[in-house]
Amino acid sequence: MVSTWLWALVGGTVVGVLGKLLAPGRARVPLWVTVLCGIGGMMAGDWLYDLFFRPSTPGVDWWRHGWQVAAAAVIVTVVAAVLGRLRRT
What we know:
single chain, mainly alpha, 3 helices
């Protein structure tokens, strides 16, 4: 259980930062929000990949990671837009 949470934090950080780098515009969100977006991107990317493709492949599944990063980029973009609007008001 603890190792699952640690992998989610590490993976969420990596995927969130990559998603933040790929997000259009300048996403001014704190690191903890980026990590949460990365964890959400990992879950959403996994779900979408399993929905459209074969769920298991031998070795490292780079396509799955690509879907995770793309989902994290979308989530970071949406969250940055929402937080930007909240900060302006």
